[in-house]
Amino acid sequence: MKDTASHFRPAPPGGFLSRLNKILLALIVATAVIPLTLRALPGRSEKAAQDKMIATAESDLAEANMIKDRLTREVTLLMNDGEYLGLFARDKVGRGYMKPGETIFRLAPRQQ
């Protein structure tokens, strides 16, 4: 009888599974190293701080533009609308002055 163990040859060292294991090991190492490298970069944290400052500045600019638009609209009304000018004078300048038969309602601004 022949020895059956001699019929089997060992897998060559550069076989498919060996290459697959090397690729898997490289992916595991890359998965661990890349986030640590990105976290250590100094420019990344500076960019995040600058992005936050830009967002704050854009928010402030939008608020300032809204105030500017409101004041521009108010100036235009004061210059061109006599009825609004009278209402403004009675409400802002001489509080309590009303036309005969006029009722003034004042609403308090919302508390935040």
Write the layout of secondary structure elements.
Layout: H1 16-40, H2 42-80, H3 82-93
Number of helices: 3
Q: Which structural class do the helices and strands define?
A: mainly alpha
Radius of gyration, in angstroms, nearest whole number: 39 Å
What is the residue-averaged pLDDT?
81
Secondary-structure element order, N to C:
HHH
User: Span from first to last CA?
Assistant: 96 Å
Stretches where pLDDT falls below 50 for ≥5 residues? none
User: What is the helix content?
Assistant: 55-70%
Strand content: under 5%
Characterize the biggest β-sheet.
none
Principal-axes geometry comes out as: rod-shaped
Q: How many β-strands, per DSSP?
A: 0
Core attributes:
mainly alpha, 112 residues
Structural account:
The chain has 112 residues and is an all-alpha fold. It has a domain at 16-93. 68% of the residues lie in helices and 0% in strands. The chain contains three helices and no strands. The chain has helices spanning 16-40, 42-80, 82-93. Helix 2 packs across helix 3. It is rod-shaped and about 120 Å long. It starts with 15 loop residues before the first helix and ends in a 19-residue tail after the last helix. The relative contact order is 0.04. The model has no long low-confidence stretch (mean pLDDT 81).
